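Hi Y.,

Following your request, here is the sequence exactly as I used it, all 189 residues.
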Amino acid sequence: MKRIGILGGTFDPPHIGHLIIAQEVLDSLQLEEVWFIPTYEPPHKNEASVPVGNRIEMLQHALTNNELFQLNTIEVDRAGKSYTYDTMIALREQYPEADFHFIIGADMVEYLPKWYKIDELINLVKFVGVKRSGYKLETNYPIIEVNIPLVDISSTLIRKRLQENKSIQYLVPESVHTFIKEHGFYAQK
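Below is the corresponding structure, written out as tokens. Let me know if you'd prefer a different format.
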């Protein structure tokens, strides 16, 4: 049975925090791969700042140097708001032999009671919780806790820094930084 981690998100933009989380969980749980699944439109957030095609391109740049990190566009292909429950039903149908581990930050661990069909979802996937500044890894739902180096970087922080004309060097992979600069994403309006 193939052990696969799933890291979902808007990736607006992808940053080194995403990559650190994926690598730490991969190593800690001895996973074979981590699939990055960008959302077309997340159910719990406003729409993304950058069109989905560009977010996918940035993610492709971010994942280039790790053959164990894969891009999966299942939620983008479905379009509209995506719920993890629907994604996991589809993935289990496509990969019945896979053992899926859904990686979430502590902010999402606290939000689990509000997830769509959470009681059914916990039977489809193992949740892996990682620490995030300002949040606790506390829930009544079963989660596997993985300790990671606490790197307080978020896509929101990166967008804010770019709008304030501040550097994001070293916060995102160099190829993502170059892509953002070339396209003028997140710049001051």
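The mean pLDDT is 91.

Thanks again,
Q.
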